[in-house]
Specification:
mainly alpha; 344 residues; single chain; 0% strand
Length: 344
């Protein structure tokens, strides 16, 4: 196990993935706004993009992106293949053996296998694993930010990203309702909302990492305040997850509090999550994310055949679902790592 992992950050990864997974299985979800976990992962990704830029500024943008793509490759392929096999009538059995039929059933899936789902370049109708839009935005948005840092350095942090974050949030709010949740872009707009959402939140993470780096002594001096704000941030995000109304833009203030508190030593986070098991669970969260759509689909198939499962208390269904997601994530990780060793 890597010794340089931050157990507090890994604990947050696992906790937030537990908020996110039930969103795609509404029958077991008590979290109306569990999708807010995506905001945490985007901001955190930006935080680490800046750290990667500082440590590996000699790496090119393409190599930086290929390194991330390599990490996601087998979980992506396995999850897509398993879901296609589950819905064989939709994805495998031929529907119409004409040019249009073949293209619309098979070839139109190629962008999804190439991590381009979130760009909305092709009107697919529905994706095999619809939740993986996040991964494509993470790769493409991350490449854009890394390239900006390499090309413009400090100007990216002091000018470009602050403007992009402010204008991006303004654009997303221009739809008439406050929120960051997915929606189609404005008619005639060339900007995909998912891509903007990802870039502005990763940009916020880059700015946060820079501030944390240059003001580390200040954070150390006021460690108690950081500790308190970190707890407020986590409590606030939990309330947003459970609230009936939409408060997700508030998370852009709360999530940085959590990340800084996790990075700081001697906070309640470092004391609560010092056990190495949190690092293992945090590393597992990515695999849980890739496989949870399959678990959700299987859940509805089983419930349709065993109706008594619908009568179980929500808490029991939720715990059972999350346990299965975690177990499936372990299996996916084991299989993926064996395939990595054989192919790379």
């Amino acid at each position: 196990m890597a010794t340089n992992r931050n157990a507090s950050i890994d604990a947050m990864r696992f906790i937030f993935i537990l908020f996110l997974c039930p969103v795609h299985c509404p029958a077991v979800s008590p979290f109306p706004n569990g999708y807010i976990a995506v905001e945490f992962f985007f901001v955190l990704a930006g935080f680490f993009i800046y750290q990667s830029y500082k440590k590996h500024s000699d790496i090119g943008t393409i190599d930086f992106t290929l390194k991330k793509l390599k990490r996601f490759l087998w979980p992506l392929v396995i999850s897509l293949v398993l879901l296609a096999l589950l819905d064989r009538k939709g994805y495998i059995y031929p529907h119409e053996l004409s040019p249009d039929g073949i293209l619309s059933q098979y070839f139109i899936r190629i962008p999804e296998f190439m991590f381009c789902q979130g760009l909305q370049l092709i009107d697919v109708g529905h994706y095999i694993n619809v939740t993986l839009w996040f991964i494509s935005i993470l790769l493409i948005g991350g490449a854009i930010l890394f390239s900006l840092l390499k090309s413009f350095g400090h100007k990216t942090i002091s000018v470009i990203l602050p403007l992009a974050v402010l204008l991006g949030i303004t654009y997303l709010r221009s739809f008439g309702n406050c929120g960051l949740i997915w929606r189609p872009q404005l008619p005639g707009s060339p900007f995909d909302c998912n891509l903007i959402r990802g870039i502005i939140e990763m940009g916020l993470g880059v700015i946060l990492a820079y501030v944390y780096e240059i003001k580390k002594e200040l954070f150390d001096r006021y460690n108690t305040l950081v500790n308190v704000l970190g707890l407020i941030g986590l409590a606030g995000v939990f309330l947003i997850v459970c609230a009936k109304r939409n408060y997700d833009t508030l998370s852009l203030f709360l999530i940085p509090m959590i990340i800084v508190a996790c990075m700081q030593p001697e906070t309640i986070y470092s004391k609560l999550f010092k056990n190495k098991v949190w690092s293992w669970l945090g590393g597992l969260s990515m695999y849980i994310y890739f496989i949870h759509s399959l678990v959700s689909a299987i859940y509805y198939i089983i419930v349709s055949k065993i109706s008594v499962l619908n009568e179980l208390p929500l808490a029991v269904s939720l715990i059972g679902y999350l346990m299965v997601c975690t177990f499936a994530g372990v299996v996916l990780k084991i299989v993926s790592e064996k395939l990595y060793k054989k192919t790379f």
